[in-house]
């Protein structure tokens, strides 16, 4: 229980308000996480990261900045961390996942904005998150309308650099994304004052690929039955991936995987082998949004995979490591990132193909297609997702929810009914 | 063998006892304490049937208050129970529309009353019994009179589906001198539209069973039939569909 | 029905290094504990503490004595 007040004060945070946030976390975390039975020991590290969420890592970033380093805050898995790290800067994910920040966002945003955007804007304007304070510059993108306009509002308080994401996936769109990555590279060089060399970029492509491999290995263990790790724990790890030091994160995740692979050999699971296996697909779940996983798993089913940006979309497809010139590397980066299947693209058949493939790979019994309230992209695409699953004979249920606890009991009823339906 | 089904809804609590031949029934408002309401209705139905609690082999609880009682052997969601109950009450049903106090649901079922698919309204009171109650209050009429008041009236289209907005819209219409009956007819139509939309998304089939407290409202029933284009039937025991389904599930469980 | 009162115990530390050190020692000694955010009821500082069940308390105290880790106390909090 180190005293971080001085650091927070130095970051210009609202300490009183932040105190209220600190008060809520231990309870929520204890209830959702520490109450689980037979957790893998390797979760200790991730518990530690959460327990120190506004302490250890922010202190590292403060140190980095003291030495002249820069911090870039990002909001979308399309933004290539490799380029940022290659200039000696640090990229950190900034998506807001707590109801605590929503009212702050509502002060400037329309009520019918998705909670992820509201919380992200609220976290900045309320000055209650050290990461939002620490970032020297935010990197936004033109994915959905809500975000596009939110950048303009945030830009009044903090510099926001916006990347123009294509809306389709034709050859010329991939080329256009390459151009955008080049522009980001220039921006990163300008902000940091460092040149991005092909050697540095190659090294950081490897660094981020190692992180992807570690996550892929983790997810691979979830294909086993009984499943050796809960969906809640896997989600937490994915969420932490966005802001932890990449190298440490990879090594800690790999350590955990050693343990999980042993568990698989011993048939030691956290759910009985006959527990229903659920896939969650849809919008990202930013930390500390554990709501749906917690409901599903306390109803007795195991979440075995997330087709979301806090799931497989984050780590699938490594970047080709053979490029030696910046041009080649930017091309391979563009190719890799354009493989992420976000609902902001049209058409987005790739996502449906992925879902159908993942159902098989993870031996999924039922799919919950869940989007955050007021996300027009994912709720509209839901029609096609559900249609494809129904055609394939896979039970699917759609849910729409936000960060508040108000509808938890309703959601619980639906999830239970869905599980009863699977059981029949 | 003797089994019980208890459905603790947000507005009323229902209990039935089933001995393989007939159902004994009791109903009363849920009020503030679901737990109290449940035990009260349960003892009511027991005394009505002449059995005592020890003789009950198996009890299933359902409804939003299902977890608050301690005498059930199993809890099952209202979705599963309603499907089972409706398929029993009206054989041949392939879709159940249930409009209760706080939520509405559309369930696709097979001949055995197993759930094939379902949808529920999203976190808002629009298209529920609560919505009707609020508007009835704004109009100064009793919910049970809504159907009679609107019968044969030309509906005024209501634009708002949100309870709060609809309430002020209705007050606005009243002050413009519109007829209550026409407003109510419009209200029924708007609920029917919303629920029919949910049903159509699931693919409408041949025979719809309409259950829950709102099923007693003929205006909403007729509106649904018109929107869906298939027969929408209300069983005599429409309010008991969930409890009956729970009792039937209890029967299955105790047979195992 | 009155629910039985269950208490959780949180070991508090001046910094996370001490906390991680004790966590390692407890693990070695086979004492079960979890790394937890510090509840406000235990202390007004954020950061890690170690969460123990009552059965582990005595064993944990022995480890604390023998390994010389600096702790700031042990808070007893009723579980809700
Ligand atoms: S869902 Fe789309 S916009 Fe959101 S992080 Fe993923 S790729 Fe970016
Ligand atoms: S969840 Fe939807 S609305 Fe919200 S930020 Fe993502 S794409 Fe935009």
**Biggest sheet strand line-up of chain A:** 2-1-3-4
Q: Please give the number of β-strands of chain B.
A: 10
Number of E strands of chain A: 8
Which regions of chain A contain 5 or more consecutive residues with pLDDT less than 50?
none
What's the architecture of the largest domain in chain B, going by CATH? Answer: 2-Layer Sandwich
Specify Rg of chain B, calculated over alpha carbons.
18 Å
Mind sketching the topology for me?
The complex is a heterotrimer of chains A (424), B (256) and C (80).
Chain A: H1 5-10, H2 15-34, H3 43-51, H4 56-66, E1 71-74, H5 81-86, E2 90-93, H6 102-106, H7 115-125, H8 130-134, E3 137-141, H9 145-154, E4 160-163, H10 171-192, H11 198-221, H12 231-241, H13 246-265, E5 277-282, H14 291-298, E6 302-307, H15 312-315, H16 326-337, H17 349-361, E7 366-372, H18 376-391, E8 396-401, H19 408-423
Parallel strand pairs in A: 1-2, 1-3, 3-4, 5-6, 5-7, 7-8
Helix pairs in contact in A: 3-12, 7-9, 10-16, 11-12, 11-13, 14-19, 17-18
Chain B: E1 3-8, E2 12-18, E3 23-29, H1 34-49, E4 58-62, E5 74-75, H2 78-89, E6 95-99, E7 104-109, E8 115-120, H3 129-139, H4 146-150, H5 163-175, H6 180-202, E9 208-211, H7 218-228, E10 232-233, H8 241-255
Parallel strand pairs in B: 1-4, 4-5, 6-9, 9-10
Antiparallel strand pairs in B: 1-2, 2-3, 6-7, 7-8
Helix pairs in contact in B: 2-8, 3-5, 6-7
Chain C: E1 7-12, H1 16-28, E2 34-37, E3 48-53, H2 57-67, E4 73-78
Antiparallel strand pairs in C: 1-3, 1-4, 2-3
The structure holds iron/sulfur cluster (2 copies).
């Amino acid at each position: 229980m180190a005293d971080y007040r001085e650091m927070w004060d130095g970051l210009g945070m609202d300490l009183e308000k932040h105190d209220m946030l600190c008060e809520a976390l231990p309870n929520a975390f204890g209830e959702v996480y520490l109450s689980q039975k037979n957790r893998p020991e390797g979760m200790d590290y991730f518990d530690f990261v959460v327990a120190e969420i506004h302490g250890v890592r922010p202190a590292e970033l403060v140190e980095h900045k003291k030495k002249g380093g820069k911090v870039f805050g990002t909001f979308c898995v399309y933004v290539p961390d490799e380029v940022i790290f290659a200039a000696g800067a640090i990229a950190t994910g900034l998506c807001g996942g707590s109801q605590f920040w929503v009212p702050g966002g509502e002060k400037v945003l329309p009520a019918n904005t998705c909670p992820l955007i509201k919380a992200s804007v609220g976290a900045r304007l309320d000055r209650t998150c050290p990461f939002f304070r620490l970032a020297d510059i935010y990197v936004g993108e033109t994915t959905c309308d809500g975000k596009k306009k939110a950048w303009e509002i945030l830009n009044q308080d903090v510099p926001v650099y916006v990347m123009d994401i294509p809306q389709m996936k034709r050859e010329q769109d991939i080329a256009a994304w390459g151009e955008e990555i080049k522009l980001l590279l220039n921006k990163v060089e300008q902000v940091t004052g460092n040149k991005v060399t092909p050697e540095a970029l190659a090294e950081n492509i490897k660094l981020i690929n190692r992180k992807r491999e570690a996550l892929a290995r983790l997810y691979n263990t979830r294909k086993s039955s009984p499943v050796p790790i809960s969906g809640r724990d896997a989600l937490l790890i994915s969420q932490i991936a966005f802001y932890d030091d990449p190298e440490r994160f990879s090594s800690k995740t790999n350590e955990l995987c050693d343990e999980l692979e042993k568990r698989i050999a011993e048939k030691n699971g956290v759910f009985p082998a006959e527990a229903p296996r659920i896939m969650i697909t849809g919008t990202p779940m930013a930390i500390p949004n554990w709501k749906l996983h917690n409901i599903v798993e306390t109803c007795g089913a195991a979440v075995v995979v997330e087709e979301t940006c806090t799931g497989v979309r984050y780590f699938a497809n490594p970047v080709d490591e053979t490029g030696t010139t910046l041009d080649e590397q930017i091309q391979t980066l563009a190719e890799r990132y354009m493989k992420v299947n976000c609902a902001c693209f049209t058409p987005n058949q790739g996502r449906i193909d992925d879902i159908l493939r993942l159902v098989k790979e993870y031996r999924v019994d039922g799919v919950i297609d869940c989007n955050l309230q007021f996300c027009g992209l994912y709720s509209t695409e839901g029609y096609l997702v559900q249609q494809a699953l129904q055609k394939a004979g896979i039970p699917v249920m759609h849910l729409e929810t936000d960060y508040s606890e108000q509808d938890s009991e309703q959601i619980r009823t639906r999830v239970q009914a869905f599980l009863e339906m699977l059981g029949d | 063998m003797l089994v019980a089904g208890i459905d603790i809804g947000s507005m009323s609590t229902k209990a039935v006892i089933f001995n393989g031949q007939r159902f004994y029934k009791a109903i009363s408002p849920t009020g503030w304490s679901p737990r109290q309401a449940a035990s009260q209705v349960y003892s009511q139905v027991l005394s009505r049937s002449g059995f005592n609690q020890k003789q009950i082999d198996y009890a299933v609880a359902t409804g939003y208050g299902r977890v608050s009682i301690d005498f059930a052997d199993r809890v099952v969601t209202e979705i599963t129970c309603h499907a089972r109950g409706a398929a029993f009450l009206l054989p041949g049903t392939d879709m159940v529309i249930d409009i209760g106090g706080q939520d509405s649901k559309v369930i696709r079922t097979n001949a055995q009353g197993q759930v094939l698919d379902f949808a529920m309204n999203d976190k808002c009171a629009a298209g529920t019994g609560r919505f009707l109650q609020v508007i009835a209050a704004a109009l100064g009429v009793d919910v049970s009179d809504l159907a009679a008041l609107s019968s044969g009236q030309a509906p005024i289209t209501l634009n708002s589906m949100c309870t709060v907005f609809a309430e002020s819209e209705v007050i606005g219409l009243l002050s413009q001198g519109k007829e209550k009956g026409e407003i109510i007819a419009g209200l029924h139509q708007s609920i029917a539209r919303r629920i029919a939309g949910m049903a159509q998304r699931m693919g409408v089939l041949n025979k719809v069973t309409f259950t829950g407290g709102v099923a007693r409202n003929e205006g909403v029933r007729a509106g649904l039939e018109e929107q869906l284009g298939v027969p929408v039937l209300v069983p005599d025991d429409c309010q008991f569909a969930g409890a009956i389904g729970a009792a039937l599930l209890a029967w299955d469980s105790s047979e195992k | 029905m009155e629910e039985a009162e269950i208490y959780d115990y949180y070991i508090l530390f001046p910094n996370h290094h001490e906390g991680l050190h004790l966590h390692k020692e407890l693990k070695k000694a086979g004492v079960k504990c979890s790394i937890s955010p510090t509840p406000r009821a235990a202390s007004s500082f954020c950061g890690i503490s170690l969460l123990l069940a009552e059965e582990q308390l005595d064993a944990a105290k022995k480890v604390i004595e023998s390994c010389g880790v600096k702790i700031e106390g042990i808070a007893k909090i009723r579980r809700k």
